Amino acid sequence: MDKNFLNKLEKQHESGEYRKIIDAILSLPEHAIDYDLSGHLARAYNNANEYDKAIETLMRVQEQGQNDARWLFRLGYAYFYQNKKEEALQAFTKCKELNPDEKNIDLFLSMARSLGETADNERRAEQEYWELHLEKVMMPVPGKRWKNDLSPAFFLDISGSGTGKIYEFAFSPFEDDSEKLNALNRLIERKGFEANGCGCENYFRDYIVVNAPELSLKIVGDSDVDTCRLIVKSKKEYYVLLRIVSKAVRELYVCYPKAKLPEDFAYLKDMFSDDYYPKKLVERVKQCLQKIVAFIESGRHTYEEIQQKLDEATEKINDLQEKFDKQESEIETMARESIADTISGILAFFNIDIDVETALRERDW
After folding, report:
1. What is the H or E stretch that residue 231 is in?
2. If pLDDT is split at 50, 70 and 90, which confidence band does 92 have?
3. Is residue 134 very low, low, confident or very high in pLDDT (cuts 50, 70, 90)?
4. Model confidence over 189-243: pLDDT tens digits?
5. Secondary structure of the chain: what % helix, strand, coil (to 5)?
6. What percent of the chain has pLDDT over 90?
């Protein structure tokens, strides 16, 4: 199948345009709907609440799918929302055996086991899962957790209303003294939005309009200065909302270089001006830093990718220490400060909000 067609289906899935997926696949000749497309079609039927059609589609390719974790998950999903506990558990259990890391399998196994129990138990299982899931996926900077000693930066609420369940995502990183959340606030401001609940809602809404236009019409905002709140009325919309919000937050941690570093940028000024440091070795340190700049300038990169390049450069500088020692020099206080100042200048020029200590976290000098 054409990769462009499959990519289009994936984008429509991420935007919640399930009917378009169904129509696009069903417009193909029957012989063209292979195993992979059957999986896309079944997923779209599931997300459109057409569980009988999802099961029918999956059963057509049962021979290929019965040992495929993804096929089993989709089958279990359809059975689960038909309240068929035993069938759902059987499919989810085998899915877990084949692939313990299958996305959302732990959540649905837990909820399937609670079928027939109280709605509160099911709601609690789902809510706890998504809180843990979001804390994992909304972590663009390695090793940084978005919560302080008092409360998480975000929380979820699934509650009843006069018309049924409502699903609320609430995000409150604005009144926190932790460095990582202050960094997030600065990134929101750099996007042109106020670093408060209402400003954050505006940022999310703008992002959703572009990336999930159908969802944008179904969201109710209830934000104030302290907290960004986004509310939807169905589980399917909720899942799409959480995926899009996660992407929107990670997007804040993406560097888009708008210009190249000036040619006269001063690398390692103090090291070059002091004869204590062999010039050839200082030049090699400079080359390590220039590779970071070349990578940043090459296009769109996440902070995690940039941090990886910083780590690689730092480790190469670590390896130069022995060569400095052999020439009766060393990477000591002034050299450390010179390297740190150069890194700081590079990060500041490209508006990359990684502190110098983190940038050079792999150093052993």
Report:
1. strand 228-232
2. very high
3. low
4. 878 898 888 988 999 999 999 888 888 888 988 888 878 888 888 777 877 787 7
5. 60, 10, 30
6. 44
CA distance 81 to 53: 13
| Closest listed residue to residue 158, CA positions, set 168, 150, 148, 173 | 168
The sign one gets for the Cα dihedral 62, 67, 71, 75 is: positive
At residue 217, the pLDDT reads 86
Q: How far is CA 276 from CA 159, 268, 324, 345, in A?
A: 68, 13, 10, 23
Distance (Å, whole) CA 249 – CA 251: 5
* Distance from C-alpha of 195 to C-alpha of 225, rounded to nearest angstrom: 9
Helices within 212-332 (DSSP H only): 213-216, 235-252, 269-273, 279-297, 303-319, 321-326
Report residue 363 as tokens: 């150093």
**In degrees, to the nearest 5, what angle opens at C-alpha 123 toward C-alphas 248 and 207?**
15
Let me know if 360 is exposed, middle or buried by CB neighbors in 10 A (0-12, 13-18, 19+).
buried
d(CA 11, CA 193): 27
Centre a 10 Å sphere on the Cβ of residue 176 and count the other Cβ atoms it contains. 18
Query: In the 8-state DSSP scheme, what is residue 262?
Result: P
Mean pLDDT of 321-344: 95
Determine the straight-line distance between the first and last CA of the chain, rounded to whole angstroms. 53
Task: Name the nearest CA neighbour of 260 among 295, 290, 297, 286.
Answer: 297
- What distance separates the 2 farthest-apart alpha carbons in the chain? 78
Written as one string, the DSSP assignment of 96-150 is HHH-TT-TTHHHHHHHHHTTTS-HHHHHHHHHHHHHHHHHHHT--STT--SB-SS
| d(C-alpha 134, C-alpha 303), whole Å | 18
Distance between CA atoms of 143 and 101, rounded to whole angstroms? 21
